[in-house]
Design a protein that fits this description.
Layout: H1 8-17, H2 26-29, H3 39-50, H4 71-87, H5 94-111, H6 143-148
Helix pairs in contact: 4-5
């Protein structure tokens, strides 16, 4: 091998030959359209039928018909929706991974008697009497502890 295989001129010529502004391949690189346009559409037209369970008169499972009024539920269901939109494109094990790693993880947390739907039920509906309270926390005053828990480099602490 000779060193002239690695000359910058040859790399420059190759770069000139590659024109990324032609627009060719843009359709291939464009993100696919989602199957559902929102978490609400995903839950109301897909998940509730896909993840069918007997919930009436069940003490060990909770579901709220007004699930969209529970912040934790919305966050978990949005995570399920986004994972679904990504994994549905995998023709191999995508849906299996979605069930195993996402649905089978989040749905029991949603259905749990002490989960976000505590106080709600399919039978009685949404319970507005139980106002959820944020988890307690104390304000952190120690700068060194804040930095240790952040992405800031330790040398920025004086």
């Amino acid at each position: 091998m000779t060193d002239d295989l690695f000359l910058d001129e040859e790399l420059a010529d190759a770069a000139d030959d590659y024109d990324d502004t032609s627009g060719e391949g843009d359709a291939e690189e464009a993100a696919p359209e989602p199957e559902f346009t929102s978490v609400y559409e995903f839950v109301e037209t897909h998940l509730v039928f896909l993840y069918a369970r007997k919930l009436a008169h069940k003490q060990d499972r909770r579901w709220c018909p007004r699930w969209f009024e529970h912040p934790e539920a919305v966050s978990r269901l949005e995570a399920l929706w986004r994972a679904y939109e990504s994994l549905r494109l995998d023709p191999g094990t995508g849906m299996s991974v979605w069930w195993r790693d996402h649905a089978d993880h989040h749905m029991p947390a949603l259905f749990a008697t002490d989960g976000p739907f505590e106080g709600c039920s399919v039978d009685r509906g949404h319970n507005t009497d139980l106002a959820a309270t944020a988890l307690p926390t104390d304000e952190m005053d120690d700068l060194n502890l804040r930095v240790a828990m952040s992405t800031l480099a330790p040398e920025t602490v004086s």
